Amino acid sequence: MRTTRRLRLLAATGTAVAALALTACQDGTGTKDEGTAGSATATSTTASAAATPKASEGADGTSTGTGTGTSTGAGTGTSTGTGAGKSARTPAGTTTAKKSGGGQDDASADRVLCNGSNTAVRVQSLSRPLNHMLITVTNTGSKLCDLTYYPILRFDEMQWAPQGAKETQPQAVTTLAPGESGYAGVLLSAADGSGDGGTTGHKLTVAFQGMTPNSSGGASALPSLPAKGVYYDSSLQVTYWQQNRADALDW
84, 185, 193, 216: most buried by Cβ count inside 10 Å? Predict the structure, then answer.
């Protein structure tokens, strides 16, 4: 009986020892496995964490690089291109203005005032209209010349000059090309004898006006008068310069 109990006790003890040994082994293995799993997890987490920033940085870098590059390149390129284009047009615009100015200067250089130095002036007494005289001015120069306003006439040493008849003022300045002629009509005296201070003139000075009324347009002309002279009185009046002969006499 005792022997049987002792054997059972030994067997139970052995079983317990074996179970304890197995448990320790399993715990050790388990500890080792847990350590391995923990390392793998840590490594995985570390790798994942490292990979995540890298992927994020890569994505951000790509996004930033692409966005900045595109934005900067497009913006700068567009802005610079537009700016350069506008800047290029401004000089172009300046050049046009200069051309326009140059054109005006060229036109001015090719255009002068008509006066006694670049024209031939002659006068002609007329029977019709009665008591009228015609002044003809021919451009003898090589440039266009302008006849401005009306001629300033002085017979002999007279101290006054007749005014231009306002109703004869043309809409544009009379311009003569080389070889062309312009005209002015002169009413010498009243047909009904109502004029005062009638006298005969033997010398005539024809003065030319400048670009403003009563300013000097240059050299005067001294056309020849008929040998018997020209009779005039206080009715003396002159037309504005005309392009056509008929316009100078029809007033």
Answer: 185
How far is the C-alpha of 181 from the C-alpha of 20, rounded, in Å?
A: 143
Are the C-beta atoms of 168 and 239 separated by less than 8 Å? yes
Measured between alpha carbons, how far is 88 from 86 in angstroms, rounded to an integer?
Answer: 5
Q: For residue 220, which of 234, 210, 232 has the smallest C-alpha distance?
A: 210
State the Cα–Cα distance between residues 106 and 111, nearest whole angstrom: 9
Is the bond into 178 cis (omega within 30 degrees of 0)?
A: no
Query: Whole-model pTM?
Result: 0.58
Percent of the chain with pLDDT over 90: 50
Per-residue burial over 177-188, b = 16 or more CB atoms within 10 Å of its CB, e = otherwise: eeeebbbbbbbb
| Domains of the chain by residue range | 1-109, 113-249
Q: What is the β-pairing status of strands 132-139 and 174-176?
A: unpaired
225-231 long-range Cβ contacts below 8 angstroms, 24+ apart: 225/123, 225/201, 226/125, 228/200, 229/200, 229/201, 229/202, 230/123, 230/125, 230/133, 230/155, 230/188, 230/200, 230/201, 230/202, 230/204, 231/188, 231/189, 231/198, 231/199, 231/200, 231/201
Distance CA(70)–CA(86), nearest Å, equals 23
pLDDT-wise least confident of 22-36, 100-114, 141-155 = 22-36
Please say whether the beta carbons of 250 and 240 come within 8 A.
no
**Cα–Cα distance list, 98 to 32, 71, 103, 128, 203 (Å):** 94, 39, 8, 52, 49
